[in-house]
Write a structure and sequence with these properties.
There is one protein chain. With 256 residues, the protein is α/β, with parallel strands linked by helices. It is 45% helix and 15% strand. The protein has helices at 20-31, 47-55, 70-83, 107-135, 155-175, 193-201, 206-215, 225-235; strands at residues 11-15, 35-40, 59-64, 89-92, 138-143, 180-187, 247-250. The structure holds nicotinamide-adenine-dinucleotide.
C-alpha cells in the first residue's frame, strides 16, 4: 500500500467548463489545489464558476476557445502554458446536442455534434499529449454518455459518444507507456441545461420528463453535476494510476 501524500499542484484543462458538469469538474479540481483552465466558447459566461472557485481560495482562469477550431485550440494551450505550468490533466467535457429523428436530421446537425465531441477531443488531446509525455504523468478524462448505447432521436450524439469510447481506448493504448492514462465517464440523466433542453425539445415539462426518467433509473433519482465531477476527479488523480482505457457509468444504474 502506498502512503497517502497530498497531491502536487497541477494544471488541469477542462473544456465546456463555463456551466453544468464542466463547471462542477473545474470547481472540484480547483478545490483540490490545482490550477484550472476553464475553456469554453467566447460567448459563454464563466463568471459564476470563477467566483465560486475564487471564494474558496482556488486558482482558475477562463480561456475563450472553440474546441472544434484547430488554431483556437493551439492558441488556448499556448495561453494556458504561459499562465500556469503545462497541463497534465485534460477533461474533454464540451458538448452539444442537436437531437432529431434520423429522417429529419440535417447534415449540419450531424456534423456539428460529431465536431464538438470527436474533433474537439482529438484536437485538445493532441495539443496536450506531448507535454504530458515529457512530464511522464498525465490524466485524460473524456465525457461519453449512456446514449452511446443508442438513443432514439440522437443518431449524431450516440455515434459521437460511442466514438469517444474508441478514442479513449486508443489514447490509453498509445500513451500508457509514458505514464499517461485515458478514461471515459458516461453520465446518465444529469440535471443541467443540456438535460432541460432535451425536455424542451420533446415539448415535455421538465418535472414530467424527470419523473419519467427517474422511473427508469435504479437509484430513482436524476444525477447532479457533482456526482459526475467526483468520478472524473478520481480518474484525474493519483489514486487512479492503474486504471486506463476504462468507461465508467455515472448514471444511478441506468445503462442506456
Ligand atoms: N447532462 C446530461 O444528462 C449528460 C448526460 C450524458 C453526457 N453528458 C455530457 O457531459 C458533458 C457536459 O454536459 P452538460 O450537461 O454540462 O452540458 P451543458 O450544455 O450544460 O454544457 C456544455 C458546455 O460545453 C460548451 N461548449 C459547447 N460547444 C463548445 C465548443 N465548440 N467549444 C467549447 N465549449 C463548447 C457550452 O458552451 C457549455 O458551457 C457533455 O459532453 C455532454 O454530452 C451530459
Amino acid at each position: 500500500m502506498t502512503d497517502a501524500h497530498p497531491a502536487p499542484r497541477r494544471t488541469a484543462v477542462v473544456t465546456g467548463a463555463a456551466r453544468g458538469i464542466g463547471a462542477a469538474i473545474a470547481a472540484r479540481l480547483a478545490l483540490q489545489g490545482n490550477d484550472v483552465a476553464i475553456l469554453d466558447l467566447p460567448r459563454s459566461d464563466a463568471s459564476a464558476v470563477l467566483a465560486r472557485i475564487e471564494q474558496a481560495g482556488g486558482s482558475a482562469r477562463f480561456f475563450a476557445t472553440d474546441v472544434t477550431d484547430e488554431a483556437d485550440v493551439a492558441r488556448a494551450i499556448d495561453a494556458v502554458g504561459a499562465t500556469f505550468d503545462p497541463p497534465s490533466i485534460l477533461v474533454n467535457n464540451a458538448g452539444i446536442t442537436r437531437d432529431s429523428l434520423l429522417f429529419k436530421m440535417s447534415l449540419a446537425e450531424w456534423e456539428s455534434v460529431i465536431a464538438v465531441h470527436l474533433r474537439g477531443a482529438f484536437l485538445m488531446t493532441r495539443a496536450v499529449e506531448a507535454g504530458m509525455r515529457a512530464g511522464g504523468w498525465g490524466r485524460i478524462v473524456n465525457l461519453s454518455s449512456t446514449s452511446a448505447e443508442g438513443n432514439r432521436g440522437q443518431a449524431n450524439y450516440s455515434a459521437a459518444k460511442a466514438g469517444v469510447v474508441g478514442f479513449t481506448r486508443t489514447v490509453a493504448a498509445e500513451l500508457g507507456r509514458y505514464g499517461v492514462t485515458c478514461n471515459a465517464v458516461a453520465p446518465g440523466f444529469i440535471d443541467t441545461e443540456m438535460l432541460r433542453a432535451t425536455a424542451d425539445r420533446l415539448n415535455v415539462d421538465f418535472e414530467v420528463f424527470s419523473a419519467d426518467a427517474t422511473a427508469r433509473i435504479p437509484l430513482r433519482t436524476i444525477g447532479r453535476p457533482d456526482d459526475v465531477a467526483a468520478t472524473v476527479c478520481f480518474l484525474a488523480g493519483d489514486d487512479a494510476q492503474y486504471i486506463t482505457g476504462e468507461l465508467i457509468r455515472v448514471s444511478g444504474g441506468f445503462r442506456g
